[in-house]
From TrEMBL:
Recorded superkingdom: Bacteria
Signal peptide annotation: 1-22
Lineage: Bacteria, Pseudomonadati, Bacteroidota, Saprospiria, Saprospirales
Name the record gives this protein: Phytase-like domain-containing protein
Species in which this protein is naturally found: Candidatus Defluviibacterium haderslevense
Keywords, in A-Z order: Signal
Length: 263
């Protein structure tokens, strides 16, 4: 996240471009949210009547304090509900949220809360369809940490949630944890796992028949180094978070002839 102060008021970058097959219409809308100076769209969920959009916004330069944003629109992209939640004890900082709908019709997401004293907590958040907060729980992966990020979350058919967390016990090295949470955000189990990398910048998850897999952008060097080489890894886990296998493809150069240029 850049520390460079933005100039003027920035628009909330919610550029929703979706093809609605039932109505056969495509739209693109921009939503100005003044006086937010910094804001980020993170995830979207859809039902038969509405789009549900979540994000993070701040009235300061990119950074803190930040609020968790919720917006509901109709299928034409017109705003029906908009709300923001500010944790008075912690500052929300939710850059890698996933948004899912449970069997009760509530919207469940996750994020990171940063305490003014630099303590870091993971968040489990549940809204109703009007953006009203039903549940907010905070927890942590490790007691020895500088920073934690819940990069991704997936829901199974029983409204249980799998989450992968990166925890930094110092400025350079990462530890990794898998969580399983019940429908109310209570921890069912937590598993630490090892990865052949010092750092990662992005993790995405998919559920399988017998567990789940994650795809990771990793670096063999410490994060602050500019000359580190990024690689990609895939890890497979069983249903209780144990590593089944890890695959890091061999690094190879990609020539310009393989790149796609958009015109």
């Amino acid at each position: 996240m850049s520390n460079k102060r933005c100039f003027g008021y920035l628009f909330f970058g919610l550029l929703i471009c979706n093809l609605i097959q039932a109505q056969s219409n495509t739209f693109s809308k921009l939503y100005p949210l003044i006086p937010l100076l910094s804001s980020t769209f993170t995830s979207i969920e859809i039902d038969d009547n509405s789009y549900y959009v979540i994000g993070v916004g701040s009235i300061d330069a990119p950074g803190y304090p930040a609020a968790s944003l919720f917006m509901r629109t109709n299928l034409n992209g017109e705003i029906e509900k908009f709300s923001s939640i500010i944790d008075t004890n912690n500052n929300f900082e939710t850059w890698f949220q996933s948004l899912v709908m449970d069997h009760d019709g509530n919207l469940v997401t996750h994020g990171v809360s940063l305490n003014p004293k630099d303590s870091n907590f993971l968040s489990f958040i549940k809204y109703n369809k009007d953006g009203e907060l039903i549940l907010l729980k905070t927890f942590s992966a490790s007691q020895i940490r500088m920073f934690e990020m819940s990069h991704c979350m997936k829901k199974n058919e029983r409204d249980e949630y799998y989450m992968t967390v990166r925890s930094n016990p110092d400025e350079y090295n990462s530890s990794f944890f898998n969580f399983k949470l019940d429908k109310n955000g209570n921890i069912l189990w937590k598993r630490e796992f090892k990865m052949n990398a010092l750092n990662c910048s992005l993790i995405r998850m998919a559920l399988t028949l017998n567990g789940f897999i994650i795809g990771v952008t990793i670096s063999p060097d410490s994060y602050p180094q500019k000359n580190g080489i990024n690689q990609y890894a895939i890890l497979s886990f069983d249903s209780i978070g144990n590593v089944l296998w890890e695959n890091i493809p061999t690094v190879r150069k990609i020539g310009l002839e393989h790149m796609v240029v958009l015109k």
